Amino acid sequence: MSSELRARSSAQDIANSSTAAYKQQISFAQILEQGERDGLPATRFVSQFAQGRLTHTGRDFDLAIVGPGLLQMRDGETLVYSRGGSFVRGPDGVIADAQGRVLQTASGGDLAAVGERIEILSDGTVLADGMPAGAVGIFEASAPETIEALGGSLYRAPPGAIVEAEASSLRQGYLESANVVLSDELVAMMAASRQAESGARISRVYDQLIGQAITTFGRGTQ
């Protein structure tokens, strides 16, 4: 099972290695190797929130986070979280990602900014033509192991697990790269596959030995 989990997590990491702000997924078996457990179920993956490299894009609504923070977005009636990404501004000034998930303010509610020149400061303050127009909400997880990855760079947090950020800041005009080291993941996936193959061979030998024992026992009772 541990080999399968490692192979799955590596395959997922490799598939998302070019996804902006994606965080490496680590399996329970890997957590045990690192001496951490925290009561996580055996089939659970958790995100490694190590900082990814920042790339300058110069686009006003490309946002990246420095530190452990998360941006809050409204997806319909549900709140989800992201490490940042590319956003666009609608005709009404509302700022959302390409899938329509609306960026939320620090105090809650949809973020909107109307003006020709939008500047977003490191603390999240939004200036529209030099005038304050709100603040991007930056949050941090009080228990990172409870954050559930939803795919790509999206996350879900249980109630009470998100607090106002203290050690994070925003970078306007930047995107964060995935924190996946592709070569490491390829090596890990190959090692996991070999372990799984060895396990399968051992299982076949064990089955043969059991079969032989049953046959021998049957002859002895005749």
Question: What would you note in describing this structure?
Answer:
A hairpin with a 5-residue loop joins strand 7 (84-89) and strand 8. The longest helix has 39 residues, at 182-220. The chain is elongated. 27% of the residues lie in helices and 31% in strands. It is an alpha+beta fold and 222 residues long. It has helices spanning 2-15, 28-33, 182-220, and strands at 25-27, 45-47, 54-56, 62-66, 70-75, 78-82, 84-89, 95-97, 102-103, 118-120, 125-128, 131-135, 138-141, 148-151, 154-156, 162-164, 169-172, 174-176. The model has no long low-confidence stretch (mean pLDDT 84).
Layout of helices and strands:
Layout: H1 2-15, E1 25-27, H2 28-33, E2 45-47, E3 54-56, E4 62-66, E5 70-75, E6 78-82, E7 84-89, E8 95-97, E9 102-103, E10 118-120, E11 125-128, E12 131-135, E13 138-141, E14 148-151, E15 154-156, E16 162-164, E17 169-172, E18 174-176, H3 182-220
Antiparallel strand pairs: 1-2, 3-18, 4-7, 4-17, 5-6, 5-9, 5-13, 6-15, 7-8, 10-11, 11-12, 13-16, 14-15
Helix pairs in contact: 1-3
Task: Kindly summarize this structure in a few lines.
27% of the residues lie in helices and 31% in strands. The protein is of the alpha+beta class.
Give average pLDDT, whole number: 84
Shape: elongated
Beta-strand share of residues: 25-35%
Number of helices: 3
Number of strands: 18
Low-confidence runs of at least 5 consecutive residues = none
